[in-house]
Structures are given as C-alpha cells and as structure tokens.
Amino acid sequence: MSSISAMLRNEKRDEDGQGDKMQDKGERKASGGRKRGVPNYQDEEDVELAKIFSQIKPQTARAWKTVVDLYERWCTMTGKPIRDERSVRNRIAKLNQATKVLSDPSTAPTHVRSLHIFDRSARAKRLFNTRDGRMLNIAVDHGIFNDGRFLAGIESMSDVLKILVQLHPNSIQLSPGQAHLLLTASQAAGCPVPALILRCDVSNVYTAKFPCLPFCELQNENIIEEAIRLDAAGVICTLLKLPEDAPGAVEIHKQTVRNVCTLRNSCTKWNMPLIVEVLAVKWNENKDSFVLETDMSITAPLARLACELGGDILKCDPPVNIQDVKTILHVCQPSQVLLRGSDKGDEEGMIEDARKFIEMGAAGLVYGRSIIHHADPAVFTRQILKAIHGD
C-alpha cells in the first residue's frame, strides 16, 4: 500500500496544524518588513521601477524624465497613482541599497533578476511565493501518459489531492480531466487552493517499451480556453529530443516545437504563463526504452531552444554535475528555471540538493513521486519547503 494511502487512514492524527503554523509564521515574518540592505521585490511598483531604472540607468535630467515617463505609462496601464519625478526619485532612494542593486542588477539573486513574467502576468504571481519569488510544484499528471507504472499511489485522485493540498505547495500540476478536483479537495480539507498548472499535451514516449509510432500532441486546439475555465495559473507542455536513431525522432521534435509555438501564441493572447518541460532522452542499455540524457552538449541547447521559443518558465532535469546548474540558468535567461527535485536514494541528499539548486538561482523545484511515495509526505514536504523558502 502506498504511503499516501497510509496517510489517508491516519490523517486525523496529523491535524495539528503544523503546515498552517509554518505558513502563518512565514507570512508574519514577511509582513514584518524586509531585511536591511535588501530591496523590496515583493512590491510590484518597486519591481517595475527596478526594471526601468536598470534599463535606463539615468545620469542626466533627460534620462530621469524617460524613467518617469515609462513609470507613468505603467501606472496608467495598471491603475496605480501617478507620481512626479521627485516622488519617483524618493521612492528609489528609499529602497535599501537601491543605488547599488538597481544600477547593477547582477548583484541581485538570479531568480529575482528575470522579473519579466511577474511584470506581465498576474497569474504568475499566483504560481510563486510573493515573498521570495520561488515555487514548489507537485506534479500529479502522470496518469495522462498511459502507463500503469505511473499510477501507484495516485489511483484515487480525490483522496491524493486532499492530502497534497494540506502540504501547502505553491502549485499542483494536473491534467484537464482531474483539474476540477483541486478545488473540491481544497474545500474538503479546509485549505487554500494551490495554483493550478495544467498539462496541455499527451504523449506515448514514456512507456516501458518504445512505441512503433511515437507521438506528442496538444490535447485540443482550445486547451488555453480550458485552462482559463479551470482557473489555471499556468500551462505546461514538453519539448522533446529523442536519440537521432529512434523511429520518428525528427517528427517528435518537430511536433513538440510546434506545440510550444502554438501555446505561445495562445498564451500571449490570454496572458497565460507558459511552462516548457525540457526533456532529452537516450537509449537504455537494451535499446528498447529511454533514460534521461545527461550530456550537457545536448540538454543545454535544448533548454535554450525552449527559451527562444518563448517559454516563460522552464522545467529542466538537474544535471549530473551539480555545478552545471549554473550553465543551464545562464543560457536560459531571462526565463525562470524550475529544476526537477533530485531522486537520490537518501532523503538527506535530496534535501541538500534542493538547497543547492535554490542557492544557485533556481526559481523553484518540481517533485512528483518523490513526495507521493514518501513514507511521511508531510514531513518531507515541509523540509523541501524550508529549503526553497527558508524559515
């Protein structure tokens, strides 16, 4: 019996509210003011002003007028009160160490430097913790890939989601047929509804034996409208690269590029954040199914392609050499990068990797079966949340 099922039998004993207490503690700490010397990136006006200031770098009266004009234009579009030049200068001056960080954005954390998705989309702000701009995403869309191996522990999605929402992730990833259960599960558990990330494609390349006719297609041509109806805060599709000698490798790559481009067009129209899952695979030893590709000369260019095609957020597999995370983050700018949580056998190693990924600049982490199959999902998730968001 899966560990999630075991939790369902004993969920009453875990109603001590520790997750809520941790959330409340974080909110109280966030509302108590920012640390000395750190700009307040939580305030959307400060974020916009930081972006304009770093672009213009005003040194003359004319340059300052440009800053004010751009800022007024943004205020008009968003309904914010318009400020004169003196107020704008004072606002910048009051940001802690603003003259240092705003004039040199490289001194800011990597996940804060790429602010464009927060500026463009209110939905994106639901995906990430507003205090630190980071995310824990729990993926539970495995059933859509039509392989019985992926169903262990998620047979009853209503029960599984009732457990997962109590772990307080920032987002949960689901397919269209199961997404409506997120709201009902949250209501049943008495918990806030996590942001929904909707899986938009379906593929048969994840099966135990490689199919004769591989495919990866969008589920329907109006999937973004479905995402809006379901109140999704983001959508996700896969950019695939198979071994060159795999049957249909070129066509699969072409299909997934087309999927990303199609979604990009629809996401722009509806202001929906687009997440691209970057996945390169290679043959296993028996050459009858795939394992993850670890060659950075293949994975890094594929991640860059996802960025070039317009992915707002990229989900990437962690490289074997943890230092190569920096390479992935560098080539993918300005897209935000989520890393799949490591699946090391020991729990301490997984949590330590989570800390390192965040310290290197990842915008968040994605876990699925590592949480679902854990002996104590609540405790493990709290440790991961601490690694991502701090105390």
List the helices and strands and how they pair.
Blueprint: H1 3-9, H2 18-31, H3 44-56, H4 61-78, H5 85-94, H6 98-101, H7 110-113, H8 116-120, H9 122-127, E1 135-139, H10 157-165, E2 171-174, H11 176-179, H12 181-189, E3 195-199, E4 201-203, E5 216-218, H13 223-229, E6 234-241, H14 249-270, E7 274-283, E8 290-292, H15 296-308, E9 313-316, H16 325-331, E10 336-340, H17 347-360, E11 364-367, H18 369-372, H19 377-389
Parallel strand pairs: 1-2, 1-11, 2-3, 3-6, 6-7, 7-9, 9-10, 10-11
Antiparallel strand pairs: 4-5, 7-8
Helix pairs in contact: 3-4, 10-12, 17-19
Q: Write down the overall mean pLDDT.
A: 81
Helix content: 40-55%
The description of the largest β-sheet is: 8 strands, parallel, barrel
User: In one word, what is the shape?
Assistant: globular
Topology order in helix (H) and strand (E) letters: HHHHHHHHHEHEHHEEEHEHEEHEHEHEHH
Q: How much beta, percentage-wise? A: 5-15%
Q: List low-confidence stretches.
A: 15-42, 96-116
Number of strands: 11
CATH fold field value of the largest domain: TIM Barrel
CATH class of the largest domain: Alpha Beta
What is the fourth-level CATH superfamily of the largest domain?
Aldolase class I
Q: Distance between termini?
A: 33 Å
What is the second-level CATH architecture of the largest domain? Answer: Alpha-Beta Barrel
* Helix-strand category: alpha/beta
Q: Rg from C-alpha positions?
A: 22 Å
Largest sheet, spatial ordering of strands: 1-2-3-6-7-9-10-11
InterPro entries: Aldolase_TIM, DeoC/FbaB/LacD_aldolase, DeoC/FbaB_aldolase
Biased composition (Basic and acidic residues): 9-30
Region (Disordered): 1-41
Organism: Guillardia theta (Cryptophyte)
